[in-house]
Amino acid sequence: MKTGPDREIVAAYPYRNACPTSVWARLIDGASTNITFAGYTNYFVWQEHPRLRERLTAKAASGCGVRFLVGDPDSEVTRRREAVEGVPLTVGTRIRITLDALSKIDGGAGVDARFSDDHIALSVFIFDDEMLVTPHLSSLLGHESPMLRLRRLGDDGLYDRFAGHVAALWEAGRPIPALTG
What we know:
Endonuclease, Chain A, 35% helix
């Protein structure tokens, strides 16, 4: 039995894409109150998870809050990151793919999204009392950075620290015009 500050760490992966898609599927499908994708582009989730739009629509219809926090594809932060990455599939394009997928959710269906440029170096994906956290290493793409899987076990642990950070980013986030009525 783990004790101490690391007891909320369920698993650690040297790369985000080393976390099995079956883990993601269990977390997405098992969440009943809150799903938050606070990745700068969230692009990969649409590529790696079949029928995600339908699954998230059903989650929202059942009362689960579904939120996306993404970077602004036209911001200076995004342009700087594109220069660092130097890849053909730009950060702005990856964000626009997420925005396009979100726009196809019929009437929003209880799925909310906001812009934030303050989380470019950290992705946090929340599924009720579990989360996946990727601290992005400076010049690497997201899938090349490490990932932690956390489970909330008590107040003010690692889970609460990251969840509080995401809550603050959400509050400071800006509505996405194309997705608001």
